[in-house]
Structure formats: C-alpha cells, structure tokens
Amino acid sequence: MVIGPGESVEKIIVENIYYKHYNSEFSLKNINLKIGNEFVLLTGPSGSGKSTLVYCLTGLIPYYIRNGKMSGSVWIDDKNTNDTPLEELTKKVGVVLQNPESQIFGMTVEEDLAFGLENLCMPRHQINKKVNEILSFLELKKFRNMPPEALSGGQKQKLVIGSVLALEPEIIVLDEPLSNLDPWGARLVVSTLEKLKKAGRTIVLVERKIENVIHLVDRVVALENGRIIADESPRKFLANKKLVERLGINIPQVVKLTYHLKSSGFKFMKFPLTAEEFMSELNEFHNKY
User: Is-above-0.85 flag for pTM?
Assistant: First the structure.
C-alpha cells in the first residue's frame, strides 16, 4: 500500500473489547480504539485497565494470560490476535514490560540481543549483522561482551528494547518502562523512544510519569475504571485540569504552574506543555504589555 501525504494506516484496531479475570469485575469495558503510525500515551490511575489493555494489544491475552475471559477483537495490521499464533504476533508488535529483568535471557548483552533471532533459526551472519545494527542504534557497543547484570536500570531497559527491535516489529508497546528508574536511567530510555519515533515506529506507551515523555506524544488515551474517558491531543488533555487532577496523573511542573497562573487570570494563547513553550507565552505577554 502506498501512503499519500497526510494519510495514516491503522496499525492497531480494537473492537468492543471486554475482559474480566475469573471471579472479578470487568477490567476492560467496551474498548474501541484505532492507532496509526503515531506515538500514543495510555494513562490513568492504578487499576484503570492500562496493563490489561497492553496484554490484549500484544497477544499476551489470550495466549499467555489465561485466567480470564475476553470478548471482542484486536487486529494488529491484518492479523486478529484471537486466531494468530503468538510467535507470529511478536513479529508485528513487541512488548517492553516494567521490570527488564523478566525479559533478559542472555549471559552477555550480545547473547541477549541474538536470543530471539536464534530461535527463528536465522543464519549466523545475519544475526551478527542485526546485532551490530542494534548495538549501534542504542549506543550499547561498548557493553557487547558484558553481562546484563553489570548494566544500570536504564541500560537494561534499553537492552530489552533492543531484543524487541531485533525481530523488527513495526509496533512497540511499553508498559511503564520508566517506573523503576532514576532520572538518569529515565533519560536513557526517553532518548531511545525519541530515536524510535524518528525511525517511524508506532509506539504505545503506558506511563503515569508523563513529564519526561509528553514532548514526544501525538495522542493521549486515558482510562478510568476500565473505560476510555479521553482520546485527544496532549495539549487538549492537559488543559482539562479537573480531569487530570481526578486521574491523579504525575503532570509536568510547567503544567502545574500554568494551572496556577490561569486560576489567577493569566490568559495563555496556547496551553504550554514544555518549559520552552511556557517561556514563549510569557515573552509574548511581556511584548504586548
């Protein structure tokens, strides 16, 4: 398919998804969602259904997590997750979980990156070529022969992203990858997300700490009690102070300051998401008055 200017091909289609664990309430209720070639932030309070939705998007539900019941359909490109083998889905969509330790299998960084490719019986020369490309892309070349346990938390998360990239999925889904990282580690992962976006990957990120990533986000999908309650641009979403405060999201400091100034009567031409945008608004005000 040839994509014309401004067109977007839907990579993920979610149709009427309901999901409940046995002997519990529904954790997802009538979820309908379409995602194209964009960076989507999934956010909401704990228990809102974010991780369950991630498991549905990646095929972990119904193939790996089986202690529940799902109705509805999830399409990844032209593949329905209900009847597509998980090993085939992993070539379409890669998943990065909260704890990198759960996704690291190799004795060295190089071995870990090669692990999935070896399982696909790829020829050794092709594996070496692919591993070299990923090490360069993620700036991990100097760690090639080191054991993963010698890496920092942020570097481990980059390694997991690399092992996912080795299978060349067009879609990357990340479930709170920054939650256990210090500020330096978080910056390492965010810089990798910036590279992935520039490379044209479709990215779905679950995160409550949005200050580090909001500049990358094209669209915010917010969940509450298993339902989608907002699906809009990050600027429009964060401008809704009542909703943001109700969801308890960890918002950027500049947004908190914007809320304060707006309550004092300051009128912004454009709701700022970053410190640079905030200063630009203040300069505009200063030049006018």
Answer: yes
